[in-house]
Design brief:
single chain, alpha+beta, 5-stranded antiparallel sheet, 19 helices, globular
């Protein structure tokens, strides 16, 4: 065990108490400051234990395990990443303060240990950022799949009236939606007995019926775990089927039991709160679908049930629409508004009832009528609404080849922009770190070889050269480019291009003190990053003497000038007018979005973009952004 871990073990109580005290004093982050004291104390204690173990055994695994659990928990609780990072700042301050008191007579050791703590906590922050965004992407993707499955159930509700098809669709959807391994629907017949017309994934066709024998109808959802079963037929079924737990979902409508949906899992998993809500929603849709199919044979009763069913569906969809964070507005084929949710009214700045009004009366610059006319969807378009900008998607509603209307979803551009800036900044940082790590590994091999050859003078010379070269490059860029996102992008791209054997140089006269108003760091990264990436692709397969790119960024009195030149293959004159079209590309694969984004950002701030290119000679893109 290292001395540092021994020291931390000795002062862990003071560190934990100091962290809680700092949080109470600052009152921030609010999400942690308002947490129950005992829960907060236990979390800080676990963090300190993981930190001590990682240092003691020289492995990141204890912190990895702790941080993975905390990230999942905090994401489910809706706590922001910035709050987690702020907690680490408070914790780091407490550790250093206590260490300073403990080692006040040993400044040499104190400084060395503080650097070790800095390094480990910085690695912790990078891990949390990466893992948190991975969890967020998985959660969003999972919720998207779940919502899609629910919509499919609703579609089946209105399009399929064959009972067998409905039951089969519900079981298949349940297995896919909840990641279950087996499932079955047991319906109640006129004698009150349960029978299973649909089974999927079971080893024995009687297993679901045996499990249903212990069902308690006190709740709509029942969980049965293998480790809670003592003995009996059900335990035997669990062992034969290899089940860890089973979820039983009651199907009922108007308080009338119609049967149960049973889904089994062969691996243990904990359900989040959102999963329970989804189970209830799924059960509602499934019950409606089964009920509709059972009653379809009776024409008179079917009509009455269909009216009720449509009402339920509309209410559920209305509830879903009003819970969404995106604004949604739908119009009919004549352009009159059929539906708008609460967020849509807020973004449009309307509190009155606008249902039935023409879209141009509410939003004069709306393109929804044009979408109906052209039958072409439009995605990720910027639009002005009052004094704010929104990002909108417009899609025509087509039934049997006929347009019956159009729907638009939109969100405040500022919200999208804030999230995008975080993601772009993190991505640039990671790309830079990966490229520099790979390049540094190669140089370490050279140093290792020189050491084995006992060429120690050469080792010192190589290390000095490496440090000076890297430091000169970073210092030169940071000195001339004051926007941090732009400087970080250039450093990352230079490292990346060096790794690929491409010479990327920033013109010696480049200078940027500040970005023009209306042209954010995100816009700059989008424009410059895409131009450099395209240039790198243009020269990557060429001989070494032509694998060169020049970048010029200059802040003049009237314009911010951005120029990216390469000696690549060039752009044929016949397609130069098409290169800014979304989806058009001269490359293989699903490409053609980069230059479209560049042109969009330049156009928004009133700038211009031109290209000078000759085949087999190279291309030069010039961007001018007005400085207001």
């Amino acid at each position: 065990m290292s001395r540092l871990s021994t020291i931390l073990e000795s002062i862990q109580d003071e560190v934990n108490a100091g962290t809680v005290f700092e949080l109470d004093t600052a009152g921030e982050p609010v999400s942690y400051a308002s947490m129950p004291r005992e829960e907060l104390k236990q979390e800080i204690i676990q963090l300190t234990k993981a930190l001590i173990q990682s240092i003691a055994y020289d492995t990141f695994t204890p912190l990895n395990v702790y941080l993975s659990r905390v990230c999942k928990l905090r994401l489910e609780q809706g706590i922001k990443l910035s709050d987690i990072m702020l907690l680490f700042d408070v914790y780091e301050k407490s550790v250093k303060d206590v260490m300073s008191l403990f080692l006040k007579d040993d400044w040499t050791s104190l400084n060395r240990y503080r650097r070790e703590i800095d390094s480990l906590l910085d690695r912790t922050r990078v891990f949390v950022s990466d893992y948190f965004f991975s969890l967020y992407e998985e959660t969003v993707y999972k919720q998207f799949e779940q919502l899609q499955a629910i919509n499919e159930i609703a579609a089946c509700l209105t399009s399929s009236l064959d009972l067998q098809e409905v039951l089969d669709f519900i079981v298949v959807s349940a297995l896919r939606l909840f990641g279950a391994d087996c499932g079955s629907i047991l319906l109640i017949n006129e004698n009150g007995d349960r029978h299973a017309p649909i089974m999927a994934g079971w080893q024995d066709n009687h297993s679901a019926a045996i499990i249903s024998g212990m069902i308690v109808y006190t709740t709509s959802i029942m969980e049965i775990r293998h480790d809670t079963l003592q003995s009996g037929q059900v335990k035997t079924v669990f062992e034969r089927e290899g089940l860890a737990n089973v979820t039983v979902i009651k199907l009922y409508l108007h308080e009338v039991d119609m049967g149960v949906l049973i889904i089994g899992f062969r691996s243990s998993r904990e359900k989040a709160q959102v999963d329970h809500k989804l189970l209830k929603t799924f059960a509602n849709h499934a019950a409606i679908a089964v009920h509709n199919a059972q009653l379809y044979g009776d024409a008179d009763f079917k009509l009455q049930q269909r009216i009720h069913q449509v009402t339920v569906i509309l209410e559920q969809k209305r509830a879903i629409m009003h819970c969404m964070r995106e604004g949604v507005v739908a119009i009919n084929a004549d352009g009159f508004i059929d539906m708008i949710n609460s967020e849509g009214q807020r973004l449009l700045g309307r509190q009155d009832n606008i249902i039935g009004k023409h879209i141009w009366e509410v939003l004069p610059n709306s393109r929804l009528p044009l979408v109906i006319k052209t039958m072409q969807a439009e995605y990720d378009q910027e639009q002005e609404v009052g004094n704010k900008a929104i990002i909108t998607n417009r899609v025509p509603l087509i039934v049997n080849g006929t347009v019956i209307g159009a729907i638009a979803t939109f969100r405040d551009k500022q919200d999208v922009k804030l999230l995008a800036e975080e993601l772009v900044g993190l991505k640039s940082l990671l790309e830079s770190m990966r490229a520099q790590s790979h390049e540094f590994a190669n140089k370490l091999h050279a140093i290792s070889g020189l050491i084995q050859m006992k060429q120690y003078d050469k080792v010192v010379e190589l290390i000095t050269l490496m440090y000076k070269s890297q430091q000169d490059m970073v210092s030169s860029i940071v000195r001339r480019i004051k926007d941090q996102a732009t400087a970080g992008l250039l450093i990352g791209k230079i490292s990346q291009s060096s790794e690929q054997g491409i010479s990327l140089k920033l013109h010696s006269r480049s200078k940027l003190m500040a970005l023009p108003p209306g042209f954010s760091s995100l816009s700059m990264v989008t424009v410059l990053g895409n131009l450099i990436s395209n240039a790198m692709e243009a020269v990557e397969s060429l001989p070494a003497e032509r694998r060169a790119i020049s970048v010029y960024v200059f802040e003049g009195r009237k314009y911010l000038n951005i120029t990216v030149s390469d000696q690549g293959k060039g752009i044929p004159a016949s397609v130069q007018r098409k290169i800014y079209q979304r989806g058009f590309s001269t490359k293989q694969g699903n490409r053609g979005g980069g230059l479209a984004l560049v042109r969009q950002e330049v156009k928004i701030c009133g700038g211009t973009i031109t290209v000078h290119s000759r085949e087999n000679e190279g291309s030069t893109f010039q961007v001018k952004i007005p400085i207001r």
